[in-house]
């Protein structure tokens, strides 16, 4: 088989398994995303090893699937942004700020403490702490979308907190590396300055230039012109977030979505992009998270480390982000939901860990344990989040914005 | 930049350039696809060398872009199939058969003759002829879609002829290789048998099983369930065409589209898939054709070979397919349109040429000339086809099927 035929085969298997698992998951009253993550584990090296099957001879196949999945998470966060309006976020600004900041500081501090207790020196223990800081809310956002809770107080607070979380983790990491490599305070200021420049530029472009461009394109005889424009802007914002702002690409695409959410073409973009996302890219993303894990790599040392780190990661986030939300003005129940929503880690945590492995700041066992922690936090978040909502009163958190009508294809959000 | 950021950058550039060039092309009253092909040439190694820019260090980037483009052509042929109904094709069966068969035999014979005149032995000359046989109608199908002529007599005849073309080229090539490698007539029968098995199985599945599956899926709470099903079946049909039938993957996805065209979910699938196709995959496909060409590789010998081979390729197809269509019952004008529509070559021609290069049946110069011929036939087909339609009376070929209503989003087909 040619590499392309191998890709087709693997994509067909991934899409089929993802939808089947998602469906079974909803039948068991769990979020569809949980099933997709688990089926990824089964298809991964632990059991079937999809991208290294006997018929697969293309060594880059795994990379291609992974890149398609990464495109998926960019689109996913764009859609999350599209559903929001900026005043939603600013309204929940206070709770987001407290929750996002404490949600980083508490797990980082706990990780540092655990590292020190385990006999690591300050430098290594601090880095371990840092790997526990970065939340990835794409899983929670997806779960809340399925429950139609993304526009609730908790959903909006969560999305806002993720932005603070992202900024703070990158500041801490940059500061740490600047100090470790003998850098100056100047470097830290540069990092902060880059973020501010990116945020200012992207918001200014989105507010004052994007609406005009969108209006012009929508009138030209270009097939799927507005949708293509949205995809191009999404890619450019993701790129600029990384290159200009030094931030995560998903933060950029989330912002891009929010900007398009203010245009009259919002509905059309949402419809087309949801087709693109949920019928192709997003299932690949969720399955690929599982694909990248090999449970065989776990030995007893790793297992203990993994259990300890996971406990710290989960408790640290729930306590930190939860207490932050409470200080910010949420009820205890909402604060718990918020804390749980912040538990899942994602690619940022993995990237930080990879940097640490490459620079000798983490050994192989701790690295494996962190990879396991990222997976576990991702797996436990959807059911915990669902449980935290269902245990409460029938209407635990009323949607804040009632006047905005639901998109017609809302039923598509029922399941992944 | 990480490989993924490089991919994002290149995709953003490709999508932007493709839509801009397509738009300018329509302003000049040319098909949008022509602009997309030409902009691919500019972005390719000839001028800008997009996938090898200074910032691009990922050696697999070109492959990934190419694979995304190949997914695009699969989707494109699925959409072409979706627009048809089987009775359309059987109605144009006679003209398609004659045009498809003569459209292969004449250019193959002319190529053989030219090779013999140029002093090649029979075996090599015959192979040269074979590389000129395979039509790729995706470009013509796209051009006709833009002109809303895909469902005309010529459009339907063309799509049918492409199936005969595909079958005959593969039979001839298999027969040739069987004889060259000292195989028996048995191998030829096996090749033929495999095709028949694939066609029977895929049509039977499409007629009797697919409608039921589609009905069930459309009722389940799976997000974009029917659309994902269509994508999965599209991939599987493409795969099966190659692996079971030994045919081109695009023939398989074309069949898959025809099968879904019979389901009540046709409209929904078409809408979602068109978003997926025209806002992402298809522009990448057309640009990538240009990306794969390096005009610097042309020297004087190659230039002469290229001119000769291109002339034979263009004239051979127009004469062969045109005369075939006339015998089949078309008017002379329709026959000319049909002949022109069959001119463009594509990936099948390139694949055959690559096999010849690897097995020493073609030398490097002839191979380069054939690559150039594939590009030229692809570039000249859209404007020639458009001209052949506009020169005739206001309604040169009335749509055969009038009762079928146009899809609502037909305007999306205006431009690529």
Oligomer class: homodimer
Based on CA atoms alone, the radius of gyration of chain A comes out at 21 Å
Span between N and C termini of chain A? 31 Å
**What is the C-level CATH assignment of chain A?**
Mainly Alpha
Q: Please provide the count of β strands of chain A.
A: 0
| Largest sheet, strands/sense/barrel of chain A | none
Secondary structure elements and their pairing?
2 copies of one chain form a homodimer.
Chain A: H1 3-27, H2 32-43, H3 61-82, H4 86-91, H5 93-117, H6 122-131, H7 138-146, H8 153-180, H9 185-219, H10 225-243, H11 249-260, H12 266-291, H13 300-328, H14 332-341, H15 347-358, H16 364-390
Short characterization:
Two copies of one chain form a homodimer. Helices cover 74% and strands 0% of the residues of chain A. Chain A has 16 helices and no strands.
List keywords for this structure.
globular, mainly alpha, 416 residues, homodimer, disordered C terminus, Na+/H+ antiporter like fold
Descriptive report:
- Two copies of one chain form a homodimer.
- Chain A has a single domain, classed as Na+/H+ antiporter like fold (Up-down Bundle), CATH 1.20.1530.20.
- The radius of gyration of chain A is 21 Å and the shape is globular.
- Chain A contains 16 helices and no strands.
- The two termini of chain A are 31 Å apart.
- Mean pLDDT of chain A is 85; it is low at 393-416.
- Chain A is 74% helix and 0% strand.
- Chains A and B meet through helix 1, helix 3, helix 10 and helix 12 of A and helix 1, helix 3, helix 10 and helix 12 of B.
């Amino acid at each position: 088989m040619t590499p392309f035929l191998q890709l087709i085969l693997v994509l067909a298997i991934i899409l089929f398994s993802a939808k089947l698992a998602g469906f079974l998951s909803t039948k068991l009253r769990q979020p569809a995303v949980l099933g997709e993550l688990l089926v990824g584990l089964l298809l991964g090296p632990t059991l079937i090893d999809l991208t290294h099957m006997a018929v697969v001879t293309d060594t880059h196949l795994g990379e291609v699937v992974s890149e398609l999945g990464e495109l998926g998470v960019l689109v996913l966060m764009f859609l999350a942004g599209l559903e929001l309006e900026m005043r939603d976020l600013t309204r929940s600004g206070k709770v987001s700020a407290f929750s996002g900041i404490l949600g980083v500081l508490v797990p980082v501090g706990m990780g540092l403490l655990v590292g020190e207790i385990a006999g690591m020196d300050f430098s290594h223990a601090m880095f371990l702490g840092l790997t526990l800081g970065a939340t990835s809310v794409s899983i929670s956002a997806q779960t809340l979308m399925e429950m139609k809770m993304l526009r609730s107080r908790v959903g909006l607070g969560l999305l806002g907190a993720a932005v603070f979380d992202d900024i703070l983790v990158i500041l801490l990491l940059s500061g740490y590396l600047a100090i470790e490599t003998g850098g100056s305070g100047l470097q830290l200021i540069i990092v902060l300055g880059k973020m501010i420049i990116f945020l200012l530029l992207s918001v200014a472009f989105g507010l004052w230039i994007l609406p005009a461009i969108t209006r012009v394109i929508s009138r030209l005889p270009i097939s799927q012109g507005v949708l293509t424009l949205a995809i191009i802007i999404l890619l450019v914002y993701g790129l600029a977030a990384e290159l200009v702002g030094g931030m995560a690409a998903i933060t950029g695409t989330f912002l891009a979505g929010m900007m398009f959410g203010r245009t009259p073409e919002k509905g059309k973009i949402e419809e087309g992009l949801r087709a693109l996302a949920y019928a192709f890219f997003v299932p690949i993303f969720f399955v690929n998270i599982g694909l990248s894990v090999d449970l065989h790599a776990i030995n007893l040392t790793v297992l203990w480390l993994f259990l300890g780190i996971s406990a710290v990661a989960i408790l640290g986030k729930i306590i930190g982000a939860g207490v932050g939300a409470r200080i910010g003005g949420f009820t205890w129940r909402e604060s718990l939901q918020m804390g749980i929503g912040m538990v899942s880690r994602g690619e940022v945590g993995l990237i930080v860990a990879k940097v640490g492995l490459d620079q000798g700041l983490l050994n192989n066992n701790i690295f494996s344990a962190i990879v396991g922690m990222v997976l576990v936090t991702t797996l436990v978040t959807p059911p915990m989040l669902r449980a935290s909502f269902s245990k409460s009163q029938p209407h635990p958190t009323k949607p804040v914005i009632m006047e905005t009508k639901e998109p017609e294809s809302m039923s598509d959000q029922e399941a992944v």
